[in-house]
């Protein structure tokens, strides 16, 4: 509180009177009244009540009409009006921190100060136009006076000494009481504030979600918020697991704290892995410790520790790092993808354009540039060269191209979704002015909201395709012409075939006719031959009487020649029959020894005449044969006849044996034999090796030829082994069981 | 046509085989027919002759010969048809018929058996061979009858 006394002497408040003289004598009849006042002052617990009692007493006992009591109330820097009588200054106050306040000097004075009426410097006078006296009110603290307020007393008439004395007495008590109340009030206020701050602090600590602990210099926990207690306090009736967790946590925490003694103002930060006592899971904390300078119970500084749970934080950090890494990878992928896409677009020989909804080209590859924008590129390789007219033509071509493309693309922005558009454009090559037929294929690029954001158009030069199509058509035409020719040729061939077929049929018919003719001829031959042979035979038998020698000789010539003629006719007929297919195979089961016996008995006259013998050499246990007995017999008979015929002396043998699935019948003679060069000849028609007219051996020369034909018909064959002069061996082989060829 | 019709004795008259068997010779080629007839007669048989199928049937029904030698290719009714009719008739069914033909193509012999011929002889056939066949057939026929 400033001491204004130094300035009071020169105060504007020029005292009108000197200080009032101290008075020790009370006013008459005031004894009981004073006691009453003192009781009331002491009884008052508040400054206003106290002031009101004083003002009321002064007004009642001393009859003072104007009184204003100002004192310390709530604000320590302002003296405010506490009680008043007869004053209109409702808001009267004295600012203790304002050096210009005219009443400040009063506070430093020992005695009352009188203020004159209407003093020019009297501000906010407590009383309207009336002079007044200001009585300082002092309290006592530590033996020294302390300002506690000011009592203004209006001086309508000059205060008498008794009244002044009474006022001074009262002011002494009022001042002390007011100061007492003030200081008491201040103390209570401070206590209230401390308590409030304490509550605030507690609330604050409790509200902090991080565990907070205050430890003293010995490491003992002085203070812990509920979150800290969850970690470090076992609580009531704890589980075994919780007790262990809590004690382990405490141990870890203590050791973390004592790792290093902290200097003042230093903060320590370290990680601390604790156990959640509730469920035993790991909790990672960041431990922040800082020394607290304080006189905690007179001891050295403590340490405040804040544990920040970073379990989730670390997980989150890791996730963020992982996500970031993925993001980087994805970005790299996308970049690679985009590079690849660019590469693809660049490498495509067809023009590719991307157009935005406004119709502007967003992206074009080089082939597209050549068509649409080359003359607009200042540096372009396609930039116009040559005459200005040429450049003009280029620009015109590009504008035309652009217009065509725009009109094609513009239809797409409003077209129904989900399809590609295909169109034909005839663009102009800006470089040559040649027309290029182009196939345009457009697709829309849609945003996620389904709006068309761009249109991708690929142009494909159709010139080659059209040229190919033209060539293809020509090839087709040539092909169809060729096909026509082939068809004609084929038809001709078919016609020729048909002719051949008819000729074949005719030939067949002719062949049939020939066979028929032969058969008929042979019949016609036989009928007269029958008569010739018959009558000759009858003549020779003497049916018509005896014959002389010459007649008989002549008749025998007739007979033998007729016989020969007959055998020729028979052979020819056989060949004709075989060739006409009129000698079918008639298979039956028979025994070979029996057949050979039959053949030999038929040959008996011939054998007798030849004076040879035929040796039978039949293998043992020959199986029965299934075949055409008639044909087999004919072949064997023929071979034996030949052997007898061509063997002047020596022997003829027939050897029959089984070779695999074949029967082999060998007719072996010691006759004249056949030269190897003639081996084939003997099987030909009308052939004898000696074909001279003077040949010594009879026969038609058709026998072997017929044999071979017959052998072939039944699936067999005839082999010849012979040397001239050393005899011959004809081997007739045929299947033991004949099977019709499929 | 026949040389000795009067000499022919009726078979049914004495109800048994003739002492001299009667051969009916059917052939349109006169040289052959007469040649065989002469030889058959020379060999001791009675011979009747016919030049075609119709005549053959008439003679057969009339004379009821012991053997019929039937040429198959005949003008008018051929030998097959004639044989078929003979074999269908009660009176002539039992008379052996020997087919005599110059056609030696496959099927003729079978065809002849098919219509009821009892024997088959291919021309050219010497008279003595024919007679031998006739004798063989008569022998068979007699033993067959004797067996009844």
Instruction: Give the beta-strand count of chain A.
Output: 23
What would the average pLDDT of chain A be, to the nearest integer? 81
Number of DSSP-assigned strands of chain B: 5
- The shape of chain A is rod-shaped
Side-by-side strand order of the widest sheet of chain A:
3-2-1-6-5-4
Q: Topology of this protein?
A:
The complex is a heterodimer of chains A (742) and B (148).
Chain A: H1 5-8, H2 31-43, H3 47-62, E1 67-72, E2 78-85, E3 93-95, H4 104-108, E4 113-115, E5 132-141, E6 144-154, H5 161-207, E7 212-215, E8 221-224, H6 226-232, H7 240-258, E9 268-275, E10 282-292, E11 302-309, H8 311-347, E12 352-355, E13 361-364, H9 366-372, H10 388-414, E14 421-428, E15 435-446, E16 452-461, H11 463-541, H12 549-579, E17 588-590, H13 592-610, E18 614-618, E19 625-627, H14 629-645, E20 652-659, E21 662-669, H15 703-713, E22 717-722, E23 728-735
Parallel strand pairs in A: 18-20
Antiparallel strand pairs in A: 1-2, 1-6, 2-3, 4-5, 5-6, 7-8, 7-11, 9-10, 10-11, 12-13, 12-16, 14-15, 15-16, 17-19, 20-21, 21-23, 22-23
Helix pairs in contact in A: 2-3, 2-5, 3-5, 11-12, 12-15, 13-14, 14-15
Chain B: H1 11-14, E1 22-26, H2 30-42, E2 46-50, H3 53-63, E3 67-71, H4 79-88, E4 97-101, H5 108-114, E5 119-122, H6 127-147
Explain the overall architecture.
The complex is a heterodimer of chains A (742) and B (148). Chain A is α+β, with helices and mostly antiparallel strands. Chain A contains 15 helices and 23 strands. Chain A has four domains: 5-190, GAF domain (Beta-Lactamase, 2-Layer Sandwich); 209-309, PAS domain (Beta-Lactamase, 2-Layer Sandwich); 348-461, PAS domain (Beta-Lactamase, 2-Layer Sandwich), CATH 3.30.450; 585-735, Heat Shock Protein 90 (2-Layer Sandwich). In chain A, strands 3-2-1-6-5-4 form a six-stranded antiparallel β-sheet. A five-stranded antiparallel β-sheet of chain A has the order 8-7-11-10-9. The longest helix of chain A has 79 residues, at 463-541. Chain A is rod-shaped, with a radius of gyration of 79 Å. Chain B is an alpha/beta fold and 148 residues long. Chain B has a single domain (20-147), classed as Rossmann fold. Helix content of chain B is 45%, strand content 16%. In chain B, strands 2-1-3-4-5 form a five-stranded parallel β-sheet, with helices on both faces. In chain B, helix 2 crosses helix 6 (127-147) and helix 3 runs parallel beside helix 4 (79-88). The longest helix of chain B has 21 residues, at 127-147. Mean pLDDT of chain B is 83; it is low at 1-7 and 11-15. Chains A and B meet through helix 11 and helix 12 of A and helix 2 of B.
């Amino acid at each position: 509180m400033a001491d204004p006394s130094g300035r009071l002497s020169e105060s504007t408040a020029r005292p009108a009177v000197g200080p009032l003289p101290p008075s020790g004598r009370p006013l008459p009849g005031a004894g009981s009244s004073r006691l009453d006042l003192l009781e009331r002052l002491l009884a008052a617990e508040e400054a206003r009540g106290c002031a009101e009692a004083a003002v009321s007493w002064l007004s009642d006992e001393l009859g003072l009409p104007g009184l204003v009591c100002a004192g310390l109330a709530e604000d320590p820097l302002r003296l405010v009006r506490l009680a008043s009588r007869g004053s209109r200054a409702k808001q009267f106050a004295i600012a203790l921190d304002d050096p210009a306040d005219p009443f400040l000097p009063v506070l430093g004075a020992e005695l009352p100060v009188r203020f004159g009426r209407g003093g020019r410097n009297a501000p906010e006078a407590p009383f309207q136009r009336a002079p007044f006296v200001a009585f300082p009110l002092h309290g006592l603290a530590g033996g020294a006076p302390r300002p506690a307020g000011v009592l203004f007393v209006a001086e309508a008439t000059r205060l008498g000494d008794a009244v002044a004395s009474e006022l001074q007495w009262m002011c002494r008590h009022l001042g002390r009481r007011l100061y007492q109340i003030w200081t008491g009030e201040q103390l209570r206020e401070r206590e209230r504030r401390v308590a409030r701050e304490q509550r605030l602090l507690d609330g604050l600590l409790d509200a902090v979600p991080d565990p907070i602990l205050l430890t003293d210099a010995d490491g003992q926990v002085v203070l812990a918020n509920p979150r800290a207690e969850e970690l470090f306090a076992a609580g009531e009736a704890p589980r075994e697991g919780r007790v262990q967790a809590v004690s382990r946590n405490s141990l870890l925490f203590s050791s973390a704290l004592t790792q290093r003694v902290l200097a003042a103002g230093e903060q320590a930060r370290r990680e601390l892995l604790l156990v959640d006592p509730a469920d035993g899971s790991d909790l990672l904390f960041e431990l922040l410790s800082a020394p607290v300078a304080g006189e905690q119970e007179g001891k050295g500084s403590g340490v405040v520790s804040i544990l920040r749970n970073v379990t989730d934080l670390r997980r989150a950090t890791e996730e963020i790092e992982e996500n970031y890494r993925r993001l980087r990878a994805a970005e790299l992928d996308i970049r690679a993808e985009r590079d690849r896409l660019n590469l693809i677009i660049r490498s495509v020989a067809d023009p590719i354009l991307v157009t935005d909804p406004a119709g502007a080209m967003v992206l074009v590859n080089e082939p597209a540039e050549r068509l649409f924008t080359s003359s607009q590129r200042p540096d372009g390789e396609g930039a116009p060269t040559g005459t200005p007219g040429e450049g003009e033509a280029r620009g015109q071509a590009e504008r035309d191209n652009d217009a065509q493309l725009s009109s094609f693309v513009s239809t797409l922005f409003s077209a129904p979704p989900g399809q590609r558009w295909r169109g034909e454009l005839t663009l102009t090559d800006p470089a040559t002015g040649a027309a290029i037929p182009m196939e345009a294929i457009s697709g829309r690029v849609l945003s996620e909201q389904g709006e068309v954001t761009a249109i991708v158009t690929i142009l494909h030069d159709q010139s080659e395709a059209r040229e190919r199509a033209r060539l293809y058509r020509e090839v087709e035409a040539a092909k169809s012409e060729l096909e026509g020719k082939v068809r004609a040729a084929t038809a001709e061939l078919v016609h020729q075939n048909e002719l051949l077929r008819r000729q074949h049929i005719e030939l067949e018919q002719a062949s049939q006719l020939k066979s028929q003719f032969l058969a008929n001829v042979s019949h016609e031959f036989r009928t007269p031959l029958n008569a010739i042979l018959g009558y000759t035979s009858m003549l020779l038998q003497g049916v018509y009487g005896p014959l002389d020698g010459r007649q008989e000789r002549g008749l025998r010539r007739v007979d033998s020649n007729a016989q020969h003629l007959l055998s020729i006719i028979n052979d020819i007929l056989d060949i004709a029959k075989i060739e006409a297919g009129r000698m079918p195979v008639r298979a039956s089961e028979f025994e070979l020894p029996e057949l050979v016996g039959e053949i030999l008995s038929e040959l008996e006259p011939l054998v007798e005449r030849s004076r040879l013998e035929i040796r039978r050499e039949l293998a043992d246990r020959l199986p029965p044969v299934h075949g055409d007995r008639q044909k087999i017999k004919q072949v064997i008979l023929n071979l034996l006849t030949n052997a007898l015929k061509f063997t002047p002396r020596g022997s003829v043998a027939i050897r029959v044996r089984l070779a695999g699935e074949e029967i082999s019948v060998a007719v072996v003679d010691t006759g004249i034999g056949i030269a190897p060069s003639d081996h084939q000849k003997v099987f030909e028609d009308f052939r004898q090796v000696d074909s001279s007219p003077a040949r010594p051996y009879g026969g038609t020369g058709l026998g072997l030829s017929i044999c071979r034909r017959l052998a072939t018909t039944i699936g067999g064959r005839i082999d010849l082994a012979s040397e001239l002069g050393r005899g011959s061996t004809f081997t007739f082989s045929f299947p033991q069981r004949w099977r019709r060829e499929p | 046509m026949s040389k000795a019709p009067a000499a022919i004795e009726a078979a049914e008259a004495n109800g048994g085989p003739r002492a001299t068997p009667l051969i009916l010779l059917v052939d349109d080629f006169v040289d052959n027919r007469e040649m065989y007839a002469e030889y058959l007669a020379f060999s001791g048989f009675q011979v009747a002759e016919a030049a075609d199928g119709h005549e053959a049937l008439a003679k057969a029904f009339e004379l009821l010969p012991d053997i019929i030698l039937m040429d198959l290719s005949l003008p008018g009714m051929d030998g097959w048809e004639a044989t078929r009719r003979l074999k269908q008739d009660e009176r002539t069914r039992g008379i052996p018929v020997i087919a005599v033909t110059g056609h030696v193509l496959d099927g003729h012999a079978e065809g002849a058996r098919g219509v009821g011929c009892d024997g088959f002889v291919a021309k050219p056939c010497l008279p003595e061979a024919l007679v031998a066949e006739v004798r063989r057939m008569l022998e068979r026929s007699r033993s067959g009858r004797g067996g009844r």
